[in-house]
Amino acid sequence: DKMAKKAIDTIIKTARTGKIGDGKIFVYPIKDTIRIRTGEKGQKAI
Q1: b/e per residue, 4-35, with b = 16+ CB within 10 A?
Q2: Residue ranges per domain, the chain?
Q3: What CA–CA distance (Å, rounded) separates 9 from 1?
Q4: φ, ψ for residue 22 (rounded to 5)?
Q5: Are 35 and 45 in contact (CB under 8 A)?
Q6: 23 CB-side CA count, 13 A
Q7: What whole-number distance in Å separates Cα of residue 12 and Cα of residue 36?
Q8: In terms of Cα–Cα distance, which of 25, 24, 21, 19 is closest to 5?
């Protein structure tokens, strides 16, 4: 996904110091989304 790649590249570019503690990025599929306040699910919750 182009949008995910762009986001990942931006995070790496701005957050990398080359030192221990820079962190990790985890990328995985999302099964579902639920907006707690309204109970909306799926695309409507985004």
Answers
A1: eeeeeeeeeeeeeeeeeeeeeeeeeeeeeeee
A2: 2-45
A3: 12
A4: -60, -30
A5: yes
A6: 9
A7: 31
A8: 25
| Tokens found for residue 30 | 């999302």
Question: Which residue do the tokens 């986001």 mark?
Answer: 7
Three-state DSSP state, 19: coil
- The C-alpha atoms of residue 10 and residue 31 are separated, in whole angstroms, by 24
d(CA 19, CA 12): 13
- In this prediction, residues 25-46 reach a mean pLDDT of 94
Average pLDDT of the chain? 95
Predicted model pTM: 0.61
What does the block give as tokens for 10? 């931006």
Instruction: List the structure tokens of 35.
Output: 């907006």
